Amino acid sequence: MDVLGKVGLLSYPLPASSRLASLNWIIEESQPVRDKLRLLHNPLLEALISFQYYEYLRWFMIVPGLERSWPAWRDGD
Questions:
Q1: Domain ranges, residue 39
Q2: Which of 8, 11, 65, 77 is 20 to 30 A off residue 38, Cα-Cα?
Q3: What is the 3-state secondary structure (H, E, C) of 8-76?
Q4: Do 30 and 8 form a contact (C-beta atoms < 8 A)?
Q5: What gap in Å lies between CA 53 and CA 66, rounded to an integer?
Q6: Is the separation of the CB atoms in 4 and 60 below 8 Å?
Q7: Which residues, other chains included, contact 74 with Cβ-Cβ below 8 Å and sequence gap of 6+?
Q8: This prediction's pTM
Q9: Is there a contact between 49 and 33 (Cβ–Cβ < 8 Å)?
Q10: What is the per-residue burial (b if ≥16 Cβ within 10 Å, else e) of 28-65?
Q11: Number of domains within the chain
């Protein structure tokens, strides 16, 4: 679960031929956050803000999105 928040900020889109390319939406929706973090030019501040975004992305974007779009995720427990 901890990785889910980091995926959007630390990953890059997969090629369309990849079997997990259907998850590229996570990276695409996180792009505005990534763009803003690059403007900081302060590694400490970037780390602190990234930690907060991990939580937001995980619980308010990624988990609900996976529950809507990926039956295996929704059915798993």
A1: 2-75
A2: 65
A3: HHHCCCCCCCCCCHHHHHHHHHHHHHHHHHHCCCCHHHHHHHHHHHHHHHHHHHHHHHHHHHCHHHHHC
A4: yes
A5: 18
A6: no
A7: 66, 67, 68
A8: 0.75
A9: no
A10: eebeebeeeeeeeeeeeeeeeebeebbeebbeebbeeb
A11: 1
Q: Show contacts of 28-31: CB within 8 Å, 24+ apart.
A: 29/61, 29/65, 30/57, 30/61
Nearest CA to 23 among 56, 61, 60, 55?
Answer: 61
| Residue 77: band (very low, low, confident or very high) from pLDDT cuts 50, 70, 90 | low
Note the pLDDT tens digit of each residue in 35-46.
Answer: 999 899 999 999
Q: Please tell me the distance from the alpha carbon of residue 58 to that of residue 24, in angstroms, as a whole number.
A: 15
